[in-house]
Amino acid sequence: MEVLSSRVLLHPRDWERSVHFYRDVLGLKIYREWRGGAVFFLGGGFLELSGRGADEGLGETPQLWLQVEDLEREHGRLAAAGVSIVEPPVRKPWGLDEMRLDDPDGLRLVVVEVPPDHPLRRR
Question: What is the β-pairing status of strands 37-42 and 5-10?
Answer without folding.
Answer: unpaired
